[in-house]
Amino acid sequence: MQKKSCSTLHPQSMCPAFGGLRVLTRIDGVQVCLAADQGCLYGLTFVSHFYAARKSIISPELMNVQISGGTMIDDLRRTIEEIARDPVVRFIPVVSTCVAETAGIAEELLPRKAGNAEVLLVRLPAFQIRTHPEAKDVAVATLLKRFGNFAAPKKAKSLVVLGEIFPVDAMTIGSVLQKIGVESVIVLPGSSLEDYIEAAEAEACAVLHPFYEKTVSLLEEHGVKIVKGNPIGANATAQWIGRIGEALALDPSTVQAVAEEEARKSREVLNQFKHLKGKVIVAGYEGNELPVVRLLLEAGLEVPYASTSISRMALGEEDHKVLSMLGTEIRYRKYLEEDMQAVEEYHPDLVIGTTSLDSFAKERGIPAIYYTNNISARPLFFAAGAATVLGMISGLLGKKEVFMKMKEYFA
């Protein structure tokens, strides 16, 4: 696809601080203190309730006068002390955003502890972190660096599963890992500070999403083995289970038997959807788009174009090579205009994209759904994930005629 020249290009991602808030607000006993101006406070309060954990964030409500007047650190300290009076609060992350002065807060001027609560500065400036998935990585790495018990000896047969996943997926992953002999599993991002303490003691880490580069680098630096890939589709499922068995030195015959069993279950699901035919465009901003494309291709669908807001990263290189070999054009750090051009050029039967792209597709009579709410909010892994995703897509592909009738009616 040739990129058209355009005077205004629109990158696609939510505010990076949003990704960090998803990680931080879900920790038990947390109360976020936001160091930002009032505009940021308004927007991020909304998303922390609606998308994250239905929790409020507290802020000194910094205005330009306070920021430039030099009272910001005093205001922050006072706010931290007020938060710490609540005995329920165990953790106060101070989140600084991309207002130039707040982004440059000196960590040593903040307390490390207030009352019963740990205090930690988490920097999430948009001029440094491009997307909200990558901000999740920054938040997890910051938490691990502060709280991880890296000095402790590694626990045998213990595994960190790294990636924000649907609760059903966590249960399925835990069940499969137990079958192959994994004795301890910690999922990050976690809901407890203890998760971050214990994660540093794990022998290996299975990285489900490619954007956790800072976290992976920190774990590798402290001797944790890294397992790439994820159990999406039959082939990758067997490979993923085998890699974990190898990393933790588990019984090879048990690992192979479970890998074959789970791959067989996934193939049975894929066979149920052999009737699926059609061309799909996948264009999200969650950073986990390529494994989803891999599943669609394995099911026999055509995916001529896929895009994501994250950059091309080493952890996702395997998916990149597979998809490129199968003919999918991949666009990183994408713009809305590139996705719109792909719809015009490839004439898909279904678009799984951002809200702006979905509107563009529907205006042309093409069925379209929002990636974040319809893919990231559903199980993805193993046979159960394949059945859920492909079942939804099967229903949507059957509605193209309805969308065309609607288009003709309104025209």
TrEMBL record:
The keyword Oxidoreductase applies. It comes from the Bacteria. Residues 15-391 form the Nitrogenase/oxidoreductase component domain. One of its GO terms (molecular function) is oxidoreductase activity, acting on iron-sulfur proteins as donors, NAD or NADP as acceptor. Keywords: Chlorophyll biosynthesis, Oxidoreductase, Photosynthesis. Pfam families: Oxidored_nitro. One of its GO terms (cellular component) is membrane. One of its GO terms (biological process) is photosynthesis. The keyword Oxidoreductase applies. This is Chlorophyllide reductase subunit Y. It comes from Chlorobium ferrooxidans DSM 13031.
